[in-house]
Predict the 3D structure of the following.
Amino acid sequence: MTITTAVCNQFKADILAMNVHAAGNTYKLALIKSSASRSYDATQSNAGPSAGFGTGTPSASLLGTDAVAASGTYGVTGFTLNAPSATLQSSTTGCLDFGAAPSAATGTTISADGAIIYNATETNGKSLAVYAFAGSPIVSVGGSFTITFPSVAAATSLIRIA
Amino acid sequence: MSFEEPLIHTIRGNLPVSSLKHEFEWRVSDEMIVFIEKYTAEDGVVVRQDAHLYDKVGVEARIFAQEQAQVSARAESHLQ
């Protein structure tokens, strides 16, 4: 199964709906385990409700058992991100970033192939984007698992619309 | 065990760093830089591994290309 980095189609529709996402919402980044049962790409509409992480059959609307299990300080629903910040970069590119990356999860034993950013405030965890990890699987053993975000710019922001 | 000997926390508890084989690996691509730091015990078991990812480029949804295609299609239909 493959993971393809993409802005989720559902997020494009949600942006135009203008009533799904809000700056005050909580956004999270959940890790997708290695050897996931299905492929993940732009068609992933939801990560699922919080109770659906680690349980349930994975689908386009549920991460389910493809979510990396809780380990060390990493929780099954993922890293909580800082508040979102939308900016216009280079006059043409809309950028969505979440400030500094979340603190490293420590004492973890994790094997992950990718990640999904989703809205944890919205009941069914509407997804924003899916990321494939280059050089996956990324494995930690009783150690730290850290993700560092790119800098805010037209060519590098975490989520961009050009 | 000397109290002055540096220890590291592993899946087998705190072990002297000097008793472990220390390796690291960089995986560099256009999209990400991954740094893996691994400590292996004498029996070959990896007792600690840290993983650090740096996402270099995020992800982009392109609209401009579609707009251009639509403009081109409209221009062609006017010419016909």
